[in-house]
Amino acid sequence: MVPLSWYVALSAFLFITGLVGVLIRRNIVVVLLCIEIMLNAVNVNFVAFSDYLHLIDGQIFVFFVITVAAAEVAIGLGIIISLFRLKESVNMDDYNLLKL
Amino acid sequence: MTPIIFIPLLPLIGFLVVGIFWPFFKGKGHFIAVPLMIGSWVIATSEFFKSFTNPPNVTFVYDWIRSGHLDIGISLQYDHLAAIMLFMVTTVAMLVHLYTIGYMHGDSGYDRFFSYISLFSFSMIMLVLSNNLVEMFIFWEAVGLCSYLLIVHWYERRPSWLAANKAFIMNRVGDFGFLLGIFLTYSTFGSVSFAEIFPAISSHLHQTVNIASAFHGSMNIPVLDLIALLLFLGAVGKSAQIPLHPWLPDAMEGPTPISALIHAATMVTAGIFMIARMNPLYNAAPFAAHVVAWTGGITAIVAATIALTQPDIKKIIAYSTMSQLGYMVMVCGLGGYGAGIFHLLTHGAFKALLFLGAGSVIHSLSGEQDVFRMGGLRKYIGLTFVTMLIGSLALSGIPPFAGYYSKDLILVTAYQQGPLGQILWMIGVLTAVLTAFYSFRLMFLVFGGKERFHSDQAGHGGHGIHPHESPWTMTVPLVLLSIAAVVAGWAGEHYGVLEYLAQELPIPHQDPVAGGMSDSALKGLSVGVGVLGIFVAWAFYGRESSIPGSLAKGLSFFYKLSLYKWYFDELYDLVFVRSSFLIGRLFWQELDKGVIDETVNGVAAFFRNSGLGLRRYQTGQLQNYAMVMAIGVFGLVAFYLVFNRM
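The joint structure predicted for all components is written out below.
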């Protein structure tokens, strides 16, 4: 039996990996992938606690998260394509439209 | 409804119609204003003749202020004093309205001018008719306002608005005193109505008021004296007595018709009218009456000495007005209210005449006002010459002209009022010599001698000026006023103006001086000094003479003192104007710019600079924002964990 703390540690490791990827990578496709990693870290947490607490709610939530993530990826890729058409680049540094 | 209400109402209608619809008149404003003023004059005249038999009456118009015990109404008090004043005021106003048609012809502000002089006539009539102090004060201010508006008629010219501001500000000083006097009257008598104040005066004879109470001191002054002095301060401002006089000569910057109407015949006499109206108060306040008498006497002599050397024709007449006002104030202070009002009436006629004549002279020379650039005008403008000669003779007190009767009455009244009166009588006689001298200096310089207006005209291409007589609208008032200047004095004496006025103005107790001069000796003396003054004027200016020049050199101190008007303007400039500017500059530069502006600008600059600094953190890079957010979340969680453990 794997103790709960291992799952939580895995989840934390995945989350940090995703977060660091979001923060430091410049390629916007990689950033989108890193967001998926963070979502999956959450999923691991949900499943682990569901098992630990003997509650099915966590596993149901995971399905929702996977569904939303799929939709999000579809939209995110669409945004990336239109941004690429606008800027001819996938580098995050070129997307500074928020600056005055 | 009595016809009296129409006396003020008609000029008011004239003002409203011409004033509101002025753009439609286009130089035809006199078609409305002049007939209405003539109507007002007709009513005033017929009421004046009825007043010999009719009892005095008060026409109530409306309640104005009613609050607790304070009950102020607008009422028209028509008694003998008001009747005779109204007769003079409406006559002069009507003639000046007529004269204005010719004098202001073609002026860009023609209709505006008519609306204002109608407003002035209304205000002056109401001032004369007022039956309480507050009503009087309101119209006292209204005539001051009209004076301001009319002095500044040519508002593009700097001297005009400077003079208008000066007149207004100097009058404010006096009016402040007047207002305080009204407050003290109300707190003493509980009323501001003449009919309620006068009977109550005798019960306040020994009441005193502590004027130093604000400083925890003790300085008790009889309350009646204080009221009388405060009210008199208003009269000092309005009637151009020393020390609040310098506005009057400067007010001559305005058009000549208003110099005649406002600054000679009517408004400036409001102060004397007020003193006469309040005569029970001044009779009960001996100290205040002495101050009044001395102020008048000093003004009379000082103004006369200034008039000796002035080069500007209107300023000479203005100082002469001031001097004559001094006479009236002086005799009022000595208790001769009737004599003061009599002189006021005759003076109104001949001084308006002199001003209108001066206006005719200026008109004929296309705006020249310097008497040293005139001369020999007698053969060009004969009618003006004759009328002004009558005015000058009247002013000098030569019988049978009007000034002789009234000025003589003033001097006789003064002579019979004890030692103080005799000192003032001497001042009066001296002033009479000077009056005759400067009047005829003006006459000789303007109408006699060589024609000096051709010289010094290089700037006009050398073709000079061709003097011409004025149109009939200007000469008719001159002729009518000169008739008044001839007969007014005789009529006043013959029909007993003093006895007529005795209804309101008690005739002073006459105290024949033991071993003193008799009435006829006094009369002879005052005619004699008038003739002496005229003779000296002839000797100085009526022929080729080097006397004036050598006198000016020999007595240069006195000459300069007179020419520079006793340096009153310079003194006031130094004491009041400069110090006001200094304080103003201090507040402006140090307080306003230094403290207030710095605070406000400092707050603005702080936010602007901090905004400029913080702007750097908005990079537009999403990852920077996400980094900040992540750090924040970690920080909050760490904070929660750490502090929740404890």
